[in-house]
From TrEMBL:
A Gene Ontology cellular-component term: plasma membrane
Claim: Protease is one of the keywords in the record: no
UniProt GO MF annotations: branched-chain amino acid transmembrane transporter activity
Database matches in Pfam families: BPD_transp_2
Keywords, comma-separated and alphabetical: Cell membrane, Membrane, Transmembrane, Transmembrane helix
Subcellular location: Cell inner membrane
Protein name, as recorded: Branched-chain amino acid transport system permease protein LivM
The species this protein was found in: Marinobacterium lacunae
């Protein structure tokens, strides 16, 4: 069953790559943005499965983006592999320090404290003239192992990177969700005291998941920065973190593909909602989420699970 699911994930990601090459440029751009945000939401889902809702993943999303921008703009490093490694390292390093405090809290305290750290970064970036203050700065075109693509091929390179990240991270997270460590998060959500009685550290379980979620957010921020060619402090603002929670609720938490589905629908819905109602597009998004919560409380992926059960039956 695990092998079949992983193969489906890989096949779906390859299908996205082919589709991204065939569709118009604007739609390919939305697909890459959706994959970048979907990777971030995968970390949000990881925390939600442990009973934690983070409104501060914008912190690591922004760190990953700014690392990509800083390396290409100021350090002369454009290799996408080095940028990804640096983004992961920076995100995990910050998370290792922040998590020592944050992972001791639960419920609304975890949500608000996570948002507070994200807003601290936002405030620092707004006041940093070196990093462009509120305007941010541009991210130069990435390269791969010495190959510098043309302007037209640059987006294809980022598309390929995004697809590879979705394949690798999706497969790894699928295996992790079904490991003892993955199920430990659900045990913590149900009853922390019993988990402690079994001789397992609840803090270590939460701390590990927080580090993984930070790494995923850093990767997602890097992908977004490379395809958009620009970074700004809004990436750390609380509304950005709210988007990730919004997407997680839309897609559901029962499968690693759910964040990608939710992110894709979110980007399409926001694009067309803004085109139809540029001053009230938030109402369309809010109404959509409300309908999903009422009729599909487990998210959009519950439809896939329902159809699969009916097909097997």
């Amino acid at each position: 069953m695990q092998t079949k699911s992983i193969l489906l994930l890989i096949g779906g990601a390859l299908g996205l790559f082919v589709l991204g090459l065939l569709v118009p440029e604007w739609l390919s751009y939305l697909m890459i943005i959706a994959m970048g945000k979907g990777i971030v939401v995968l970390g949000v889902v990881l925390l939600m499965r442990a009973g934690l809702v983070s409104f501060g993943q914008g912190l690591y999303y922004c760190i990953g983006a700014y690392v990509a921008g800083t390396l290409t703009q100021f350090a002369g490093i454009s290799d996408v592999l080095l940028i990804l490694l640096a983004s992961i390292a920076a995100s995990v390093l910050v998370a290792a320090l922040v998590g020592l405090l944050l992972c001791r809290y639960r419920g609304i305290f975890f949500a608000m404290f996570s948002m507070a750290f994200s807003m601290i970064l936002y405030g620092l970036l707004v006041r940093s003239s070196v990093l462009g203050s509120t305007d941010g700065f541009n991210v130069l075109r990435p390269s791969l192992l010495g190959w510098v693509p043309s302007d037209d091929a640059s987006s294809d390179l980022v598309l390929a990177v995004a697809v590879v990240m979705v394949m690798i991270l999706g497969s790894l997270m699928w295996l992790y969700f079904r490991s003892l460590s993955g199920y430990a998060g659900e045990a913590v959500r149900e009853n922390e005291i019993r988990v402690e009685y079994l001789g397992t550290s609840v803090f270590r379980i939460i701390y590990t998941k927080y580090l993984i979620a930070a790494a995923l957010a850093g990767i997602g921020g890097t992908v977004t920065a490379l395809v958009s060619g620009h970074v700004d402090p809004e990436m750390a603002y609380w509304t950005t973190s709210g988007e990730f929670v919004f997407i997680a609720l839309m897609g559901g938490t029962s499968h690693v593909a759910a964040p990608m589905v939710g992110a894709g629908l979110f980007e399409l819905l926001r694009t067309y909602a803004f085109a139809i109602a540029p001053y009230t597009w938030q109402m369309i998004l809010g109404s959509t989420l409300l309908l999903i919560i009422i009729f599909l409380p487990s998210g959009l992926w519950s439809l896939v699970s329902r159809f699969s059960r009916q097909a097997r039956g």
